[in-house]
Amino acid sequence: MSSTTDRKNNSRNAAPRSLPDSDRPHASDPSWRRENVGRLLNDAIARFESGILRQMDAAGYHGFSLSHITVTRNLDLAGTRATELARRAGITKQSMSELIHQLEASGIVERRPDPADGRAKIVFFSKAGLAWLEALARPCTTPNKRWPASSDPTALRR
Questions:
Q1: Residue 128 φ/ψ, nearest 5 degrees
Q2: Which of 18, 48, 92, 124 has its CA 20 to 30 A from that of 5?
Q3: Over the stretch 103-129, which tens digit does the pLDDT of each residue have?
Q4: What residues are paired with 151 via a beta bridge?
C-alpha cells in the first residue's frame, strides 16, 4: 500500500480532536438539542403535514398518506412518467410504482400509454384527481397566510 493511501486510511480512523470547552455543546445543558433551527423546522413541517392530512380527511379524502401527497405534489398536470416522479420524490421506482398503483385504485390518477414510447406509461390526474388536487390546495396554501414573518426561529413553535 502506498504512503498516501496509508495516510488517508489513518486520517479516517483517527480519534476526533478535542474541542476547547468554549466550543463544545454542554452535556449539562441539553436544551441545544431541542432548541435549534433544524429541530424547530422539523417540528413545524410535522405540524404542517399532519394538518394537511386532517384537512384532507375532513374534506372526505380518507386513507391517504404523506407519501401519496408527495406523488401528487410532483405530478405535472400534463402528466409525468413514473421514473421522473420517483426521481423528483427521491424514492425508488418500485416504491413509486406501488404508490401510483394505490392512487390509481383510489381513482386519483390514471396511467396512459406514452405516445413517444409504446412500452412506457404516463401518469395523469384523473377527473376525480383534479378535484382532489383542488381540495389539497386549500390546506397547502392556508399556512402561507399564517406563517411567521419573523426570521426568529422561536416563531416556528406557534
A1: -65, -35
A2: 18
A3: 999 999 999 999 999 889 999 999 999
A4: none
| Helix, strand or coil, per DSSP, at residue 83 | helix
* Biggest CA pair distance of the chain: 66
Task: Answer positive or negative: Cα dihedral of 97, 116, 114, 65.
Answer: positive
Whether 21 has a pLDDT exceeding 80, the answer reads no
Banded pLDDT at 2 (limits 50, 70, 90):
low
Beta strand ranges found along 7-133 (DSSP E): 80-81, 109-114, 117-125
Transcribe 56-104 into DSSP letters. Answer: HHHTT--S--HHHHHHHHH--TT-EEHHHHHHHHTS-HHHHHHHHHHHH
C-alpha distance across the termini of the chain, in Å: 57
Instruction: Give the span between the Cα atoms of 79 and 112, in whole angstroms.
Output: 9
CB 74 within 8 A of CB 100: no
Size (the chain), residues: 158
Q: What pLDDT digit, counting tens, does each position of 24-48 carry? A: 666 677 777 777 888 888 888 888 8
2, HSE (Cβ side, Cα atoms, 13 Å): 3
Res 94: pLDDT: 97
Per-residue cell: 74? 410532483
